[in-house]
Specification:
single chain, alpha+beta, Jelly Rolls, Immunoglobulin-like, TIM Barrel, 5 domains, six-stranded parallel β-sheet, 17 helices, 43 strands, 33% strand, globular, binds beta-D-mannopyranose
């Protein structure tokens, strides 16, 4: 840092000619290493140390040693509950070299400690953690010594830790999803779903669940680079706010290199004072390539490398990928009530997506391939938004990086869901650290769309009878709502305002309740009239809000998944095992009641399981179509829920193992940029086309009515001009005219929109519920042809097949499944697999096989 002015000038010259980064031998000052080796663990009250894997949690270590059985298997959940009441110790040793010891600063960073953890280095307590959602950094140089160092971390039971607090509170918090009779979870800043949920096993974990890094440096370090965007006509100004911590007064250079040569290198010299320095540096990107969400264009990212330099040394450096976009939430009174829609780069965008829950109760075993599969599923399903729901976790960096890359906008809840929370000073201080840490960690991601304070707490407080059912006194109620106000209406918005100004925040999703139709004119809504309200699926057509941020229906995971946790004797919805794997209080009976409305009684358990998926898929399709069709009144549909955290009956479209349920295919088809829908209204058949595209388009609409033997009864085709971002009725006709006297029970209407030789959307319509269809047993003809990475599969049939499900032994991904086969038409799909197959190896099943 002590450097001459001349050197500065040379550096600047080199930088502006883009030679800077390659022309010199640069030594690196900052070093880091992970501390994941040599760990052992034990129950605090016992003596035997056993090998542990870090990052990990205690359940994983116990399982590896055979000390507990797999909690996901059968009803083992019950057998492992003792773990939450124990304290656990982890220890390791690590070497510190002379080089490291000579550094000005040595810090240890824990990206995640779950949860009440005391860290002891060489016998001295250096850190006490109490929040699994924050990164803990500690200057540890003074505690380290040359050569071998000992580190021990004690995790205190998250149950015992808060018991006194619970006992002295004087009332019960309304945390219905917490599976323990004592609702302790609210006192601890730990993933709420760990304590159980209406789709979740209870596994209250402890452990070093994210990486540990030892970091050392001299002179100065980049604490943060915050990039804000100012979009102008032909350019985007990037305002950098750079935080540098320095050990002395001096000078540094801050260098910005484009990794893809999209702008010239930039360098500026700054004077530093000892301590924390905030530096500002702005520059423009001319003719920017914007970041667009999936379905609207490329999610373009500018790869940028930042360096903090002194003399010829790199003090610190970091990589970023910057996506240039504007994002607005328009939530304001309008002529209807209160709008809730989003604009990306100035365009109103209909949000299509889902709600995300963590992918496992044992978080460290979610590897990168599982994150990738999940995100690829979202992209393949034509989604543009994912809501990180408030009962889970703030995800790891990889999640947000993938979302940036794939054009998925993220609705980020703070981690509070479905209960009131404490609001005493200590709790607020803890949440403040958590909010600041996560806002600063996530605010640079182009995928980050908005902040929401919590899930359903305002709604619960006003409508779910918490105050009566818990017998709260007036004082209790006043206190609890005062806590609520402090947390969600004061602290969190203040933190967003301070650390991420300009990003939309609102205290609680949803804004409006689902009971009264009138409320659907206001803001976002979680419509649970279907499922919790037991209304038929058709009510999705009536109860359409301005933005649907939750709604859903359960199904079972496929039999292959069930076989992994249940033996044949458990294959019954009333068995102990199947009840363990169904956490909704009204779960299995509700699936059955809806099934009785739309389908004939399934003959056995596998038929029930299959039909549960068809039921969910068809029911939800009605919702997707109605909500998209109601654009621009309604401008978003996020279904509950994308995924599972263990194998269970749930509202998910994809099971714990990543298998697509029927609904996932239906989501994909219902979320295509151009969609056609058919609905009968007062004896009229109405055909709509919905477009999310940015441009107008000309196309052909084709309608064909077939009987179940494949004879064409009626056809209609017309040219259509489809305006961008629209939903319009293009054709309607008297149903009986169109049916030409055919039996309603044995015809299917197929609609297609074709443009530039491509089928943009294809949909089918039946004129009676499936249970009344005259389906005939038939065998489908399946031909396969080997191609790179799998097989092309061609299916045909002489009679209509409703929801054909194809399966092979072992691993394979079907490009389509659970689809209808119309006689006379070939269905061509792709099976990705590395297995060698004959067509006989493919088994098939359809609705007609269920009764
Ligand atoms: C929603 C969610 C979850 C729950 C789901 C199904 O309201 O926010 O709390 O799992 O309903 O009941």
């Amino acid at each position: 840092m002590k450097q001459s002015r001349i050197w500065n000038v040379i550096m600047l010259f080199l930088a502006t000619t883009s030679l800077f980064s390659c022309a010199q031998e640069q030594s690196k000052v900052y070093v880091e290493s992970s501390l994941h080796d040599g760990w052992q663990f034990k129950q605090a009250s016992k003596n035997e140390w056993k090998e542990a894997i870090v990052p990990g949690v205690v359940h994983m270590d116990l399982m590896r040693h055979g000390d507990i059985e797999d909690p996901f298997y059968r009803s083992n959940e019950k057998k492992v509950q003792w773990i939450e009441e124990e304290d656990w110790e982890y220890k390791t040793s690590f070497d510190v070299s002379e080089d490291l010891m000579n550094k000005d600063r040595i810090e240890i960073e824990f990206e995640g400690l779950d949860t009440y953890a005391d860290v002891v280095i060489n016998g001295i307590k250096v850190l006490s953690a109490n929040n699994m959602f924050v990164r803990w950094n500690k200057d540890v140089k003074q505690y380290l010594k040359l050569g071998e160092n000992e580190m021990k971390i004690t995790f205190r039971s998250p149950i015992n830790e808060v018991m006194d607090q619970y006992e002295s509170t004087g009332f019960e918090y309304p945390a219905d999803n917490d599976a323990h009779e004592k609702k302790l979870s609210v006192f601890t800043r730990k993933a709420p779903y760990h304590y159980g949920w209406d789709w979740g096993i209870r596994l209250v974990t402890s452990g070093i669940y994210r990486p540990i890094t030892l970091k050392a440096w001299d002179e100065a370090k980049l604490v943060d680079v915050w990039v804000r965007q100012n979009h102008k006509e032909d350019r985007v100004e990037l305002q950098h706010t750079i935080e540098v911590e320095s050990f002395e007064d001096g000078q540094v250079q801050f260098v910005i290199n484009s990794q893809d040569n999209s702008f010239e290198s930039i360098q500026k010299t700054f004077d530093l004072k000892k301590g924390l320095n905030t530096l500002d540096l702005s520059f423009d990107i001319i003719d920017p390539e914007l970041w667009w969400p999936n379905g609207f264009g490329e999610p373009h990212l500018y790869p940028v490398h930042y360096q903090l330099m002194s003399d010829n040394k790199i003090l610190d450096e970091l990589d970023r990928r910057i996506g240039l976009r504007t994002f607005e939430v328009i939530n304001e009174p309008d002529s209807i009530g209160e709008s809730f829609y989003m604009k990306v780069n100035g365009h109103p965008v209909f949000m299509k997506g889902t709600n995300y829950i963590p992918q496992d109760n044992l978080l460290p075993r979610v590897d990168s391939s599982r994150y990738e599969h999940l995100m690829n599923t979202a992209v393949a399903s034509n989604m543009n938004m994912i809501r990180l729901w408030g009962g889970g976790i703030y995800e790891n960096d990889y999640f947000y990086e993938l979302a940036d890359e794939k054009g998925l906008l993220l609705w980020q809840d703070f981690m509070f869901a479905c209960t009131m929370y404490p609001g005493d000073e200590a709790f607020l201080e803890n949440v403040k650290n958590e909010a600041v840490d996560n806002i600063r960690r996530l605010r640079n991601h182009p995928s980050l769309a908005l902040w929401c304070g919590n899930n359903e707490i305002q709604m619960g407080w006003e409508n779910w009878g918490w105050q009566e059912s818990r017998n709260y006194s007036v004082q209790d109620s006043v206190l609890l709502y005062d806590y609520y106000t402090k947390l969600f209406k004061e602290l969190l918005p203040q933190m967003v305002e301070e650390h991420d100004p300009g990003r939309f925040y609102y205290p609680s999703s949803p804004i409006s309740n689902w009971g009264e139709l009138e409320d659907f004119k206001y803001g976002d809504n979680h419509y649970w009239g279907v499922w919790w309200g037991k209304k038929p699926f058709e009510s999705f057509r009536e109860y359409i809000p301005r933005f649907m941020s939750e709604f859903g229906f359960q199904s079972f995971p496929e039999m292959r998944t069930i076989k992994k946790f249940a033996t044949e004797e458990d294959w019954n919805i009333d068995s102990d095992v199947m009840k363990t794997h169904q956490k909704s209080s009204i779960g299995n009976i509700t699936i059955k009641e809806y099934m009785d409305m739309y389908y004939r009684e399934p003959k056995d358990f596998p038929s029930f399981v299959y039909l549960s998926q068809i039921l969910q898929a068809e029911g939800m399709r009605m919702a997707f179509e109605a909500q998209r069709g109601a654009k621009p009144f309604c401008m978003g549909t996020l279904y509950w829920q994308l995924n599972d955290c263990w194998p269970v009956a749930s509202w998910s479209g994809m099971d714990y193992y990543g298998n697509w349920k029927a609904m996932q295919y239906f989501v994909r088809d219902a979320f295509t940029p151009v969609l056609t829908t058919m609905e009968e209204k007062n004896g009229q058949l109405e055909v709509k086309i919905i477009s999310d595209e940015l441009a107008d388009r000309s196309a052909d609409l084709k309608l064909e009515l077939y009987d179940f033997k494949g004879n064409q009864i009626s056809t209609h085709s017309q040219k259509v001009e489809i305006p961008s971002n629209s939903s319009e009725v293009y054709w309607h006709k008297d149903v009986s005219d169109f049916l030409k006297g055919q039996d309603k029970k044995s015809v299917v209407l197929v609609a297609e929109v074709i443009s530039e030789g491509k089928v943009l959307t294809k949909n089918t319509h039946y004129f009676v519920p499936v249970k009344d269809l005259k389906l005939k047993k038939s065998s489908s003809d399946i031909q396969i042809e080997q191609v790179d990475g799998g097989y092309d599969v061609t299916i045909s049939s002489e009679t209509l097949i409703k929801n054909l499900y194809l399966e092979i032994e072992g691993k394979g991904f079907w490009s389509d499944n659970y689809f209808d086969v119309v006689p006379g038409q070939l269905s061509k799909i792709r099976l990705e697999t590395d297995k060698q197959l004959k067509s006989e190896d493919i088994s098939s099943f359809s609705v007609v096989d269920t009764f």
